[in-house]
Amino acid sequence: MFSVEFDTTKFTKKLKGIQVAALPEAQKKSLFKFGFLNKKKMMPYMRMIFRNPTALTLSSVLFKVEDDENMFFFIKSIKGKGNSPRKYLAPVEFTTGGLSKAYETKFSYWLRNYSGLGLSNRYPIPAMGSSAVEKSKTGTGMKASQYTKVRAGLIKSKGKGKITGNQYRYFAVPTNGKKGRGGLADGIYRVKGNQLGLLFTLAKKQPQVPQKFQFFAQTVNTLKKDMPAIFKSELRRSLAKIK
């Protein structure tokens, strides 16, 4: 969350007497208009720096107007099964311009801490080049529904559920330190009959991502470019009401 400042004094020096009463309304309405404009302009910027961003990402920039002098910008936070934009955008938000540890998905956290497969030091990365991976609409990640299937399948692989009918079986290499499975590379797989598919590779270090989302800088640029015209327009409207 951050705030930005806009000095209105150079636009209001000539106001006299009752005209000053127009200021609070003009300032507050200007903040709202700027907030909506900044949110709108952030969408094409996100499309430029991110590869096929989701609708949730594109709509994640929010603002709150506190009063006629203060407003704040922040990223949407959600609760539930999905991943929260506030969390997954935090590592890529610009601070030093270097690298940050990538956001750890809920699936990754479960696999390392609660799966019981002995993979606490491994990080699952979808094998996007594998035909076994069901891609999301944007084509940049795995479908959320497949994450759910893999998790359920891995739980069943530990004997906590029965595999019935013509279903896929899921397993991880290694499992509790044991390789097995005929010399397969480390990863998470699914198998049915003679069909074997790689779903995830398993990294030994948490992946890193570049800090390229300049949320603050883009907001300031929009403020400098568009706020003067917005404020002057709103001030004229407020003054017209009291003439």
- What is the arithmetic mean of pLDDT? 91
What is the domain total for the residues? 2
What's the number of helices? 7
Question: What sequence of helices (H) and strands (E) makes up the elements?
Answer: HHHEEHEHEHEEEEH
Assembly classification: single chain
Structural class by helix and strand composition: alpha+beta
Low-confidence stretches: none
Overall description:
- The chain has 243 residues and is α+β, with helices and mostly antiparallel strands.
- It has two domains: 125 residues, no CATH class; 99 residues, no CATH class.
- 38% of the residues lie in helices and 16% in strands.
- It has seven helices and eight strands; from the N terminus they run αααββαβαβαββββα.
- Strands 4-7-6-5 form a four-stranded antiparallel sheet. Strands 1-2 form a two-stranded antiparallel sheet.
- Strand 6 and strand 7 form a beta hairpin.
- Helix 2 packs antiparallel against helix 7.
- It starts with 8 loop residues before the first helix and ends with a helix.
- The relative contact order is 0.19.
Summarize the structure.
The protein is an alpha+beta fold.
Task: Note the topology.
Elements: H1 9-12, H2 23-49, H3 55-58, E1 61-65, E2 71-75, H4 85-89, E3 99-101, H5 106-113, E4 123-126, H6 144-160, E5 169-173, E6 187-192, E7 195-203, E8 208-210, H7 215-242
Antiparallel strand pairs: 1-2, 3-8, 4-7, 5-6, 6-7
Helix pairs in contact: 2-7
